[in-house]
Task: inverse folding
């Protein structure tokens, strides 16, 4: 299993429209085989921060979905990013 998690920084006046424009990507990811969870959401406190969370069964499934990455408009809107990939060896219930 693999998790992609972190945040993007965008112009605070554009954050909500950025998140809304990501809805088709979220829908597509959630419909993709191997995607266990996928969200792009507005941060509760920081008006410039967009939270990213993805959970995939495998690297191959992630890469098959990812393709060429964000659209040019989305990429241009990102001022900064801190998103990391975590490879999960095991999962346990609490």
Result:
């Amino acid at each position: 299993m693999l998790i992609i998690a972190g945040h993007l920084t965008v112009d605070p006046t554009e954050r909500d429209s950025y998140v809304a424009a990501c809805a088709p990507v979220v829908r597509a990811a959630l419909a993709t085989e191997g995607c266990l969870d996928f969200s792009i959401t507005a941060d509760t406190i920081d008006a410039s921060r967009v939270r990213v969370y993805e959970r995939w069964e495998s690297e191959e499934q992630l890469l098959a979905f990812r393709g060429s990455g964000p659209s040019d408009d989305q990429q241009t809107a990102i001022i900064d990013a801190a998103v990391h990939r975590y490879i999960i060896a095991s999962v346990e219930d609490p």
